[in-house]
Write a structure and sequence with these properties.
Number of helices: 2
Shape: globular
Structural class: alpha+beta
Distance between the termini: 49 Å
Number of strands: 7
Strand content: 25-35%
Length: about 130
């Protein structure tokens, strides 16, 4: 008796991964003034697609306005994408790369403000 010894990765991939890469690339091609609107639309499309395919790994994104006028897109795996007021895109860690304040009410804790710390982030650039 022989066993199949073909190595397999334990890393799960998702259609959302390629869709997000495409959204970033398309957003970087757009004029800086249009980038927030374009990326937000594409993120909503990814969420809709993934919700319609429940057998796939879940994918969500919560959006916030940064204290500096940026738009922050936070995913469920500890990563964020920030579009700064000048239209530049930044890859961020959801906790380490922001000064965050919280509000507490009715037994809940919610994010109140997010201030991006750009010096700790990596900028996305067109390929």
């Amino acid at each position: 008796m022989t066993e199949n010894t073909t190595p397999r990765s334990g890393i799960l991939t998702s259609p959302a991964d390629a869709m997000l890469s495409r959204a970033i690339a398309e957003t970087l091609k757009a004029p800086a003034s249009d980038r927030i609107q374009i990326f937000e639309k594409m993120v909503r499309e990814i969420e809709s697609y993934m919700a319609a395919h429940p057998a796939e790994r879940p994918w969500t994104c919560t959006m916030y306005d940064g204290t500096d006028g940026s738009r922050i897109f936070r995913g469920g795996v500890g990563h964020s994408l920030v579009i700064d007021p000048d239209g530049r895109l930044w890859r961020a860690r959801s906790y380490e790369d922001f000064e965050t304040t919280y509000s507490f009410s009715d037994g809940t804790c919610e994010i109140d403000t997010l201030t991006p710390l750009y010096k700790q982030m990596r900028e996305y650039l067109p390929r």
